[in-house]
Fold this protein.
Amino acid sequence: MIYEVIIVGTGAGGATVAHELSKKEWNILILEKGSDYPIGSAVNLLKTPNLNLIYL
Ligand SMILES: Cc1cc2nc3c(=O)[nH]c(=O)nc-3n(C[C@H](O)[C@H](O)[C@H](O)COP(=O)(O)OP(=O)(O)OC[C@H]3O[C@@H](n4cnc5c(N)ncnc54)[C@H](O)[C@@H]3O)c2cc1C
């Protein structure tokens, strides 16, 4: 898959940016070094088809 946006970190800032940019229907990749949903993350983001989350 080709991504238009790559976001590092799915904290309060990353999750908000991912949510807003996903409205543009871009393919977005989020890279997260944590092993679980961090504080501030939005679990509903993972139900958005054009968002992919990879734990590093
Ligand atoms: C104990 C505590 C209590 C708080 N209480 C409140 C509160 O009540 N109200 C409030 O408004 N604010 C509160 N804050 C502040 C709030 O948590 C932060 O302001 C906010 O989370 C900052 O958002 P952020 O997206 O910049 O960073 P974060 O939310 O910290 O997100 C950063 C993310 O990036 C990931 N990351 C970091 N480095 C990498 C890397 N190299 N590769 C991949 N992923 C990476 C991290 O794992 C994390 O998920 C609190 C903070 C703390 C520590």
Observations:
- The radius of gyration is 10 Å.
